[in-house]
Amino acid sequence: SKFSLLTIKPTIPSWVTIFGYPLSIFFIVVNEFCERFSYYGMRAVLVLYFKYFLKWDDDFSTTIYHTFVALCYLSPILGAIIADSWLGKFKTIVYLSIVYTAGQVIMAVGAINDITDGNKDGTPDNMTFHIALSMVGLLLIALGTGGIKPCVAAFGGDQFNDDQEKQRSTFFSIFYLSINAGSLLSTIITPILRAQKCGIHTQQQCYPLAFGVPAALMVVSLIVFIVGSGMYNKTAPSGNIMVKVCKCIFFAIMNRFHNRSSQIPKREHWLDWAEEKYDKLLIAQVKMVLKVLFLYIPLPMFWALFDQQGSRWTLQATTMDGNFGLMVIQPDQMQTVNPILILIMVPVMDFIIYPLISKCKLNFTPLRKITVGMFLAGLAFVAAALVQLQIDATLPDFPSSTEQQAKFINMVNRPINITAGKYAFQLYDLSFDLTIDSGSTETIRLPGGTRNTIVIVEEADRMTNIKVSIKVRSKSKSNHIFFNGFGMTLNITVGEEGFGNIVSKNMSTYVDVPQGTAKFVIKNAAGSTCVFKREFGFGSSYTFIIPPNVTFEENVTFESNLCKLIEVEDIKANSIHMAWQIPQYFLMTSGEVVFSVTGLEFSYSQAPSNMKAVLQAGWLLTVAVGNIIVLIVAEAATLPDQWAEYVLFAALLVLVCIIFAIMAYFYTYIDPVKIEADFANLEPEDEKKKNLEMTKKDMVENHDEKKRRSSNEGKIVQTNF
């Protein structure tokens, strides 16, 4: 029997093993690390890319983000079917990794604004082109990452022989560690890359680099995996169990529909109607699977909240102060709190919390743990709502799309009287008559949804105004504007950014300035300069007025001839610190540990030995449905305040949590191994009895059919049994 076993599954040669472990798993672990770095690195900056590069609003950015995540968790079902039914795991991983890599490269190319920036002003001239590339790239990434998700871990398990259970267990621990390591490093590194400045014509936030590095890691992942090809144990596809389960369920439903007559005896369970085609063991296994899948119904609501860490919570961080003293945290880097806390909370739960609960004689069953995890996630969103309330109190009163705002700056050296029509403006009346002192009246038009600065200057004994409009900007950036009150054209630069040449008594364009100390170099036509230094917080916005009496000198240093400018604060810097997000991350991660880890353990303990993949697909499907819930709420809900949306999600999860607790109360735990053993030891007499019953049923049905025919023909037919 030993030799027959070796012919079915060849022993891995000793020359490709190290310390009893197949050398092939090294390539698989490195492949998984690079792939997870690629996926989470791209995803970390994705919602900010939507908002700041593609210029989408918060709601639409959230919708597309969660649509993408949902596709990533729907495609594993397709990948599992392809691998098990046609290509096998190795070819499926290779082919879909090529698709995956192509998607990452397309995303990086689509983020290069210089491709369509014909006028070299820093803004793409053909945004449709960039959107199209981005959507194609995301579609390919979703197909690739989801398609290989159910294959890589299982392919790694295939590298071990049957007598290497201990090594296989260690491999899965290392495999899980590589996932978290890739996730943690990528969510730290890619936001740093995104914050860099790059570009051919103008310096912009470097999204091509933030997407390009994950693309490069995906290329490395593919190459490493292919290099180890000669060392892999490749099993041929043997048919997908999910397909068998679906066929069994479909046959049972159709058979019951065809035998819906009241004369046909009822069966104990509706799946028993599949007995004509499938054996009782398979039917019993499907029953166990459906019993667990029924409990999955409320679970998507947890993932609806959990995956908003990468969307709503990241957008929330853009309105907060990320200065931690020794380092400055980017908004998208706050997501690293989750993997860090996971590494801390898993051992804390396993070695401290759970043992303490056990010592207190509390029956903390897996389903109760899942219920607690959902409740903790709801509390996390309550905490997020409280933080949002504090943030809203610091935000300026931005105009809606049906309102406009105007600010007047008096550059005349005496008081003046202004009549600006009415104080409230309607969308259909975007103008008002402006009268300065007793001069002539001028009609001012303000674009909807803008904040406007109107500077009043005096030219040739006549006062006039200069208007500058700005769309509502995010508070994650500091953007500033200069007014040249000097008597000649001035050029202003800050670092590598330039405000351009500003004509006398005119305004510059808005320029984004990083948080920290900024040094503005102001140069006149003669080449003389002065320097203006200032500390900026996150999200501040100022109008700086260069007065007529500013002095310029030649060959000045940054510490000499500092300009004295007039400052007008348009928007205050973010004052709520990002550290206030840590409690909500702590609650969410705690909920994830007791929900996700326990949920998988419970599912596996209640699943038949050959159908764990079915429950894995069902579990991933709950993640996909959860993200679909988010995009539905984001589009359908018309809540004016973000904190109200957080409370809505928390309330929905608590409601679902109560429903799940009731379902769990009536659930009866089973032992799949014992049930399968009982069916495996089925006596031959039982099989004969089953066949006899089926024969008798067929004879009865034939008798009824003959009787119906004889009645139609007016004849009497007697049948003997």
The CATH homologous superfamily of the largest domain corresponds to MFS general substrate transporter like domains
Number of strands: 19
Terminal CA distance: 49 Å
The share of residues in extended strands comes to: 5-15%
Given this structure, which CATH class of the largest domain is correct?
Mainly Alpha
**Mean pLDDT reading:** 81
Which overall shape is indicated by the principal axes computed on the Cα atoms?
elongated
How much helicity do the residues have?
A: 40-55%
Radius of gyration: 34 Å
The assigned structural class equals alpha+beta
Biased composition (Basic and acidic residues): 690-712
Region (Disordered): 690-721
InterPro entries: MFS_trans_sf, POT_fam, PTR2_symporter_CS
GO cellular component, one term: membrane
Write a compact overview of the structure shown.
It is a multi-pass membrane protein. The protein is α+β, with helices and mostly antiparallel strands and 721 residues long.
